[in-house]
Amino acid sequence: HNHSATSCLARVFMSRHWLGIDTGTGSTRALLIDPSGKTTAAFTAPHEEIRMEHPGWAEQRPADWVHAAATAIKGVLTTSGVSGRDIKGVGLSGQMHGLVMLDRSGSVIRPSLIWCDQRSQPQVDFINRTVGKERVLASIANPVLTGFTLPKLLWVRDHEPQHFERMRKMLLPKDYVRFWLTGEFATEVSDASGTALLNVVNRRWSFDMTDALGLDRDILPSVHESTEVSGVISTHAAELTGLAAGTPVVGGGGDQAAGAVGNGIVEPGLVSCTLGTSGVVFAHTDKVAWDPLGRVHTFCHAVKDKWHVMGVTQGAGLSLQWFRNQLAPGASYDSLMSEAAAAPAGSQDLYWLPYLMGERSPHLDANARGGWIGLTARHTRADLIRSVVEGVSWSQKDCLEIVEGLGIPVHSIRASGGGARSPFWRQILADVFEKPVTNLDNQEGSAYGAALLAMVGTGEFSSVPEACRATIREADSIAPRESEVRTYARGYANYRSLYPALRPIYSQITR
User: How far apart are the C-alpha atoms of 349 and 391, rounded to whole Å?
Assistant: First the structure.
């Protein structure tokens, strides 16, 4: 037991800690960092399954997030041996776009319609007719999508007026956790950007939108910058979690913005490529820039007076997961990658279109469908796998091209997420992007970014970039290879011509 005695002593010396809490879709993660930014402990508590009563519907119970948050906070304090009194600040992150409706007493009125709920297309059409597409873009710098919070709220107004009339406040998922911890109705600019109710340029609520749609302005919580203190831990929350009453809670960030802070994407020229189920290209920008066609999102960053632009491939890691589940059951991802590496670059002119869930950037087409083009009797299974990795990488290049087209500088790309664990995939990204691709020694993402925001908000660092420079380290950097760059540039030109050619067929198929 000598080892644990030593580590107890070390803990006493490093007794200042910051807590990051990430309310994800499948679980809540709580994570502690010390003054050097090192993660000292983490604890994950699972959520209930998503409720899908009809195709395209997706709901979760906010009470479940709060229960998971309590479990994760108690868990991380217990496993680390850190006392609640030693936590100097709390940062919050979470899944974006979810609608939490509260009544006069602060009780939840109905389950939350979460980010992947797609039922609100008629309400999106209503917003575009009522407000006008151009005025929407001018008001919120983004088109309204079914995923955003506002159309979900209008769906409830249209279909459940009895619930809508009881509502006094609307919150996002992590902000409901904040309300439970502090009693404050508050949000911050990065998460609020995904509601379709924030004036992203001026970083405040867009009363143009609320007034045009007949919504009461008072339903909106106060909106803060991400490092601003938004409240303190209440006596009640202290009893339930083991945290100390009075501990400051900062604004925090939506999961994408907080994850970008955790990856250090907080200065010009840095871009991240996160390959999870979906793939996200995320770029920091000093000036607000938006795509008039709405192919990428422009949101407020978790860095004061900065913004970010992000493009999304719906079926990134999902494409490889589908291949494994359907065509290589039981195979490990590592074995699939080494098989793919045996095929030549360009997969002998075989092209994979990763549109297994329709597509967001750059096509905004729910009808798009996936598939292979160019298959011949000469192709091997290795070509099939490699073409999937290449097709997903090209779809991420589609996102990157829009970002660069907005005049945002891109010097290097930080890769994270499951797909980026593979050095083979990182090398293909470098060759396709024609830029160096790095990865980080800390892969914690959103909860880590939330804890860094708490460090800044409690004065440990003077700014988010300063915190990231002090705590975030690149592990390795992969340079593009000249001959592969040429092969992939030719392949990308062909890849780009496939969607426009197939688009008329997609609408035939889905009709």
Answer: 11
pLDDT at res. 366: 81
Cα 402 from Cα 386, distance rounded (Å): 25
Bridge partners, residue 371, by sequence: 353
| Residues 336, 385 contacting (CB under 8 angstroms) | yes
Helix (H) or strand (E) holding 186: strand 186-188
Asked whether 158 and 123 are in contact (CB, 8 A), the reply is yes
Give the tokens for residue 137: 């873009």
- The rounded distance, in Å, linking the Cα atoms of 272 and 414 is 5
pLDDT in tens, 355-408: 998 888 999 888 899 999 999 999 999 999 999 999 999 999 999 999 999 999
> What single-letter amino acid sits at 396?
Q
Out of 22, 64, 255, 383, the active site residue is: 255
Average pLDDT over residues 304-318: 94
Query: Per DSSP, which regions of 209-259 are E strands?
Result: 222-224, 229-232, 248-250, 253-254
Contact 97, 126 (CB under 8 A): no
Q: Which helix (H) or strand (E) holds 483?
A: helix 482-510
User: Mapping DSSP to helix (H, G, I), strand (E, B) and coil, where does residue 468 land?
Assistant: helix
Quote the DSSP letter at residue 217: G
Alpha-carbon distance values, 482 to 49, 347, 397, 415, 492 (Å): 47, 17, 17, 20, 15
Cis bond leading into 362, ω under 30°?
yes
User: What is the C-alpha to C-alpha distance for residues 118 and 475, in angstroms, rounded to an integer?
Assistant: 39
The β-bridge partners of 440 are: 474
- Closest of 67, 127, 124, 62 to residue 98, by C-alpha: 62
Task: Tell me the C-alpha distance between 34 and 31, whole Å.
Answer: 10
* Chain mean position to CA 48: 20
Q: Which two tokens stand for residue 72?
A: 């994760």
Q: Are 142 and 297 in contact (CB under 8 A)?
A: yes
- Confidence check: pLDDT of 462 > 60: yes
CB contact at 8 A, 404 and 296: no
In the block, tokens 């749609």 appear at: 213
Quick count: other Cβ atoms within 10 Å of Cβ 181?
28
Q: Is 255 annotated in the active site?
A: yes
The candidate with the shortest Cα–Cα distance to 171, out of 140, 192, 200, 148, is 192
* CA dihedral over 50, 187, 85, 12, signed as positive or negative: positive
